[in-house]
Amino acid sequence: MKDDDRGCPKCGHEETEMDEISTTGSGLSRIFDIQNRRFVVVSCTNCGYSELYRSQSSGEIVDLFLG
């Protein structure tokens, strides 16, 4: 790992791509296929390593991913 601990946790690259996914929970939301849980996916554009975060401000999420 690099000394400054910034960038992708796997390869150190600092360019990311973001996307969103929605999933069902358990119980009634699963029975009725209600997708009530949202996540932001941050992926490294170099190696493809991805992390899921509960939906919040995109700026905060990239900061979490890159360190």
TrEMBL record:
InterPro entries: DUF2082_NA-bd_Znr. It holds the Pfam family Zn_ribbon_13. This is Nucleic acid-binding protein.
